[in-house]
Amino acid sequence: MGNCVIIGIAGGTASGKTTVAHKITEVFGDNVGLISHDNYYLPHNDMSFDERTRINYDHPNAFETDRLIRDIITLKSGSAIEVPVYDFTIHNRIDKTIHVEPQKVIIVEGILVFEDEALRNLMDIKIFVDTDADERLARRIGRDVNDRGRSLESVLTQYTNTVKPMHDQFVEPSKRYADIIIPRGGENNVAIEMINERIKSILGNS
């Protein structure tokens, strides 16, 4: 294994995980890599669009987590990886990859990155972004309607039928594995600054 430090950032849908991750990568640029578990959603080329809309995307089985685990091990060993690309507007993986070079620090973010024990055990620092459920729902509506072409009705149906039950079953219980819990997500600048200081010491910039 190389000296790559893996930071996991988990939390509920629209909790601010991605915002926290981006605020960190903005500070350190190319010295910190970022991988989203969302990119590892399984492809469903055999299904129609309508069938794909009905998949439970908040269950651990929706992800190709074993590939993510292999990719992190590859990065830790000092080799580059090709990360798959998922398009939320069509509910499917597309024929494209993102080249990721090994870095001293790699952030892995997603709702379920602490749920799988093998994945969790690859992480050196585990951060859970904890945001009020009402606020997360409001953010999710804004994101999915504006950025992902969804109707308000479809967002609310998906939230009620799968997102909330899966959050309660898988996401919330995984909080107990966190080393650090950040309330209010990306708005919590004090917590983000503390994490940045830790990363600076890892990178030898302090």
Q: Kindly, what is the distance between the CA atoms of the first and last residues, rounded to a whole number of angstroms?
A: 24 Å
Mean pLDDT: 92
Give the count of helical stretches: 7
Helix content: 25-40%
Instruction: Report the radius of gyration as a whole number of Å.
Output: 17 Å
Q: Give a count of the beta strands, DSSP E runs of length 2 or more.
A: 7
Order of helices and strands: EHEHHEEEHEHHEH
Please summarize the sheet with the most strands.
5 strands, parallel
Shape: globular
- Low-confidence blocks of residues: none
Please identify the structural class as seen in this structure: alpha/beta
- Largest sheet strand order: 2-5-1-6-7
Our estimate of the beta-strand percent is: 15-25%
Topology:
Blueprint: E1 5-11, H1 17-28, E2 32-36, H2 49-53, H3 65-76, E3 81-87, E4 92-100, E5 105-109, H4 117-120, E6 125-130, H5 133-146, H6 152-171, E7 180-183, H7 189-203
Parallel strand pairs: 1-5, 1-6, 2-5, 6-7
Antiparallel strand pairs: 3-4
Tell me about this structure.
The chain is an alpha/beta fold and 206 residues long. It is 40% helix and 21% strand. The protein contains seven helices and seven strands. It has helices spanning 17-28, 49-53, 65-76, 117-120, 133-146, 152-171, 189-203; strands at residues 5-11, 32-36, 81-87, 92-100, 105-109, 125-130, 180-183. The longest helix has 20 residues, at 152-171. The chain is globular and about 50 Å long. The two termini are 24 Å apart. 34% of the residues are buried.
